[in-house]
């Protein structure tokens, strides 16, 4: 019976994930713009704070697009199971 059953290591062997080095940079950029926006709001410069919050949304969207694009490029389609 042991000849028919596959080894446990074969069943649970995972594909090695490829890490994109630009994703952490995007996360740090998002955090930096968010921090600068919150500081400018606190200091009373609401116009600059609003511009920085909009910039944060753009940087965050670019980071998410980079993550999805990297996953799709390396064969891990996030929309298919």
From TrEMBL:
Matching Gene3D superfamilies: 6.10.140.1320
Major subcellular site: mitochondrion
Localization, UniProt: Mitochondrion membrane
TM helices/strands, residue ranges: 22-41, 53-74
Keyword Translocase on entry: no
One annotated Gene Ontology cellular component of this protein: mitochondrial membrane
Keywords: Membrane, Mitochondrion, Transmembrane, Transmembrane helix
Stored Pfam families: HIG_1_N
Claim: Mitochondrion is one of the keywords in the record: yes
Domain annotation HIG1: ranges: 1-81
Protein name: HIG1 domain-containing protein
Source species: Brassica carinata
